[in-house]
Amino acid sequence: MRDRSSSKARPNIVVTLAVADLWARPDLAARRNDLYVAAVERHGARAIRLDTRVAAAEREEALASMDGLLMSGGADIHPSRYGQAVAGSKEIEDDRDELESMAWTIAETRGIPVLGLCRGLQAINVFSGGTLLQHVEGHHGAGWGLGPPVTHPIRLVGGTRLASLLGPAEELEVNAYHHQGIRKTDLAPSLRASAWADSSAGPLVEGLEGQGERFVVGVQCHPERTESTPDEFERLFAAFVEAATRQAASAAR
Fold first, then answer.
1. pLDDT tens-digit map of 196-243
2. Strand order of the sheet with strand 12-16?
3. DSSP secondary structure code for residue 80 in this structure
4. 33 lies in which domain range?
5. CATH code of the domain covering residue 187
6. Catalytic site residues?
7. In a domain, 19, yes or no
């Protein structure tokens, strides 16, 4: 456990991850996990890796020390969590849903900053009472490490936290590794859209955030994959770590 006596203490950011050994290419899955961790560590955070194989006592310790929560990409969330039957969802991992639901609830209770990437954006919406479109054509190409990514532009919504971090450009080209999405009607009432993209199913939410002062931000793309991400997204990781640093300082008082 770190010394919380200094306001400059490195924040503990819990990073929820897929179990690499369960994927068809464990080597690529492990590299993907490392990218999430590196994205916060290069901005000064201490990353705590958390997946479903972590023992209960270690899980409890990690969540108790958490100053920030990064929910990463991975398998689909079970549709039962938003009141639907399976109709396009795949590679569902109930145990990961449970792990992240627990972490989200603790973060909500304690006012901890949250950043969601891809599945993580969808998790924020589902855990906040929203729903998902279970399949969207055209937003998922070759898997990471297996070929060039599908890309598309997103439109930032002026006046949002995300636009203030990624602007002044109103449009950015991002990677797309997802087959599910959030339409306007799927968005939880407590959240607001901060970026949009066109799709075969109509406009999709590509960025979302909480409506209060607390840092709660999700993006549908994978900004940790820097080879296919605009440099502006480093400001998002920096702001998230800074919010977690303030949380750590507050906990130290």
1. 999 989 999 999 999 999 999 999 999 999 999 999 999 999 999 999
2. 46-50, 12-16, 68-71, 114-117, 216-219, 204-210, 191-197, 150-156, 171-176
3. G
4. 12-252
5. 3.40.50.880
6. 118, 222, 224
7. yes
